[in-house]
């Protein structure tokens, strides 16, 4: 399977608290949640829905898994809910002991090996949605095959960012890009090793 990620971010790179409710994620005093609600036009929403629908399986960090289980775990009236409920779900966690969402497997122990085994299976996409800590870890360990960023034209000035101030460097090849009628940018990248820097 191809491991893909999809992340909604602001222009200043914040991914925290993007959901439909303002108090979804208040960690570290964050007060500007719900910033992605209503963002994007019908074409962008269709793109997001179709992305979920083509998933062979989903991979989550613990926190995102619990948020998704609460909001989508019993939802079958929406195509995203159907996709999430019908596909296998994997959670990278050392603390989750009793997953309550059907068809969930907790990955413990040697995480790179476990994810490598999932990627080696035949099939379509192993998708990661949100899950910032996990996404950063996957990128650091060269496990991401394709990354989609949905950039909402807003600057928050606070909140957890997808890419920290310090961390590994990464070159990306742009494979798809578009801007919708509301100014939301969808950019699809493939990791391309390390950047090249100018020499003296």
UniProtKB/TrEMBL annotation:
Coiled-coil-forming residues are none
Domain named Bacterial bifunctional deaminase-reductase C-terminal: residues: 3-185
Q: Under the GO molecular function aspect, what terms does this record hold?
A: 5-amino-6-(5-phosphoribosylamino)uracil reductase activity
Q: Entry's Gene3D superfamilies?
A: Dihydrofolate Reductase, subunit A
Pfam families hit by this protein? RibD_C (PF01872)
Q: Which PANTHER family does the annotation name?
A: 2,5-DIAMINO-6-RIBOSYLAMINO-4(3H)-PYRIMIDINONE 5'-PHOSPHATE REDUCTASE, DIHYDROFOLATE REDUCTASE FAMILY PROTEIN (AFU_ORTHOLOGUE AFUA_8G06820)
Query: What name goes with this protein?
Result: Deaminase reductase
